[in-house]
Design a protein that fits this description.
The chain is of the alpha/beta class and about 260 residues long. The protein contains eight helices and seven strands; from the N terminus they run βαβαβαβααβαβααβ. Helix 1 links the parallel strand 1 and strand 2.
């Protein structure tokens, strides 16, 4: 029996076929889930729609996670289409190129607000809107990175945003636990995605990771997708508030 057979899920944040969200989407589909997708703007729609349709999805809706009205409208449309949901995948993060390039003490006020809004607050608002239609036992999952805990070269404001995201995961898990809704996050090793292209010298970061991780290899979209299926399925029915590492053991090592 497929772990996600009969379950309906929403993937928020798919950008292209290099996205972590794409690896998760493929595995969710493989394990039997019916999926819906969002896209940020018309330019991304051209990439997202063919991918979503290749997995049999016919719910593909525009949503800007910085706009409350977009999020509320999204879940109104989800309810019309699916009725109830079983899981939501939050795979959204963004910071301005200037704030990723400059030294951290030069982070702008607007840049700080933007990074925290898109990368962390959006999970709170999405969860609040999803709560009314998610089934008991349902799962909400976000994507984070080790830069939330330790200083990673050139990650800067995104490290602060991911720290806020991880704290939000714990608060939401405690808040929604009595409703039977689980909230977790995957902390993935570095993967060359559209978001990663904004981090300076990302190639060196990946090389250092591969040399230090106990498994001595990079992680793949498939690795993350497999872990996601576990967190989104009933196999993890008693797991909530966790940051689940899929990083070849990198997080247990010292520099």
């Amino acid at each position: 029996m497929k772990l996600l057979a009969g379950k309906k899920g929403l993937i928020i944040g798919l950008a292209n076929d290099k996205s972590i969200a794409w690896g998760i989407s493929q595995k969710c589909h493989e394990y039997g889930a019916e999926l819906g997708f969002t896209f940020l703007n018309e330019a991304l729609e051209k990439r997202v729609r063919p991918l979503a349709e290749s997995l049999g999805a016919d719910f593909i809706v525009k949503c800007d996670a910085e706009k409350d009205e977009d999020i509320v409208r999204l879940f109104d449309e989800v309810e019309k289409k699916f009725g109830k949901l079983d899981f939501v995948v939050h795979s959204i993060a963004h910071a301005s190129a200037e704030d990723l390039k400059n030294r951290f003490h030069l982070t702008t006020r607007e840049g700080f607000k933007h990074a925290l809004d898109v990368s962390a607050y959006s999970l709170i608002k999405i969860t609040a809107s999803a709560k009314k239609i998610i089934n008991p036992g349902g799962s909400i999952m976000a994507m984070t990175y080790y830069g939330a805990e330790k200083v990673v070269p050139n990650y800067r404001i995104m490290g602060v945003a991911k720290a806020a995201l991880e704290a939000s995961v714990r608060e939401l898990a405690a808040d929604l636990g009595p409703d039977g809704i689980r909230v977790n996050a995957i902390s993935a090793g570095p993967i060359r995605t559209l978001a990663a292209s904004g981090v300076s010298d990302f190639k060196s970061l990946m090389t250092g990771f591969e040399g230090r991780a106990p498994l001595r290899r990079l992680v793949t979209q498939e690795d993350i997708g497999n872990a996601a299926v576990y967190l989104l399925s009933d196999m993890s029915r008693s797991v909530t508030g966790e940051i689940h590492y899929v990083d070849g053991g990198f997080n247990i090592t010292a520099a």
